[in-house]
Amino acid sequence: MARILAVVNQKGGVGKTTTSVNLAAGLAHSGKRVLLIDLDPQGNATMGSGVDKRKALRTVYHLLLGMGDLASVRTQSASGGYDLLPANHELAGAEVELVELAHREGCLKAALAGVVHEYDYIFIDCPPSLSLLTVNGLVAAQAVLIPMQCEYYALEGLSDLVGTIKRVRAKLNPGLEIAGLLRTMYDPRNTLSLQVSQQLETHFGDKVYKTLVPRNVRLAEAPSYGAPAVVLDQSSKGAQAYLALVDELLARERAALGAAA
User: Fold this and answer.
1) For the chain, which residues make up each domain, given as ranges?
2) CA-CA to 28 of 20 to 30 Å: which in 64, 100, 123, 228?
């Protein structure tokens, strides 16, 4: 049974897609069966996976609205080594069309029901908003991974996101939990970064991943090559950070399984 993680932050430019793509590729290259779902109309995870969103005939849009099954939408990221449910600008229309459906918050969960046994990990790259698409991601997920920059406004936005997670847990997905908070674009020379990082550790404790993802040119360049940074340049500091995050994520999963046993 797959571990389903929604990668969420309503603030744009914090590294959601970079995190989703590189975690998917890192886990795939460690032998795990991985599915990445691009739930953002911008389609950045699709392009970053080496799939041309402009040529995608079937996307998550068709899946959510029942106009195609998962088998017809699913494709493979040759560069990343994982399966992908692509997205493009059509997905923006799903926001309006989903409102008319009776079980609009659970469309993605229902679509995934038949394939969760085929994967070890499923990542949902959510859009930078607390929209109906994001709610679909939260309802389908078992846990939330929150990438965030260490800056003042990020802390303000975090409280809103935690509030949304609590509401979804109360009304739609009682098993939803926070898997962890990932500090991205981290600069240890910046005093504010250090202060915010310490505040996160104080308030969230072991929910904060030990791995710190630095600002890194290779992470920014990788999408233009249609390949995750962990594949394009494994020696870069950004790729090394995401590979360390893969190890940390796997270690946490093993520890959780050991505790449950």
Assistant:
1) 3-256
2) 64
Give the residues across from 208 on adjacent strands.
181
As given in the structure block, the two tokens for residue 135 are 């709610």
216: left (phi over 0), alpha (psi -120 to 50) or beta: beta
Helix/strand/coil (H/E/C) assignment for every residue in 162-217: HHHHHHHHHHCCCCCEEEEEEEEEECCCCHHHHHHHHHHHHHHHHHEEEEEEECCH
Task: Give me the architecture of the 3-256 domain, per CATH.
Answer: 3-Layer(aba) Sandwich (3.40)
Contact between 122 and 112 under an 8 Å Cβ cutoff? The reply is: yes
Of 253, 260, 178, 225, which is closest to residue 27 (Cα–Cα)? 253
DSSP label at 39? Answer: -
- Is the pLDDT reported for residue 261 higher than 70? no
What tokens were used for 147?
């990438």
| Residue-wise pLDDT tens digits, 131-174 | 899 999 999 999 999 999 888 777 777 888 999 999 999 999 99
Note if the pTM is more than 0.90: yes
The widest CA-to-CA distance across the chain, in whole angstroms, is 51
pLDDT of residue 158: 87
Give the tokens for residue 11: 């603030």
pLDDT digits (tens, 9 = 90+) for 16-29: 999 999 999 999 99
Strand order from edge to edge, sheet including 3-7? 75-77, 82-85, 34-38, 121-125, 3-7, 143-149, 177-186, 208-214
- What is the C-alpha to C-alpha distance for residues 56 and 68, in angstroms, rounded to an integer? 13
13 by Cβ neighbours in 10 Å (0-12 / 13-18 / 19+) ranks as exposed
Share of the chain above pLDDT 90, in %: 72
User: Mean of the per-residue pLDDT values for the chain?
Assistant: 92
- d(CA 31, CA 246) in angstroms, rounded, equals 12
pLDDT at 98: 85
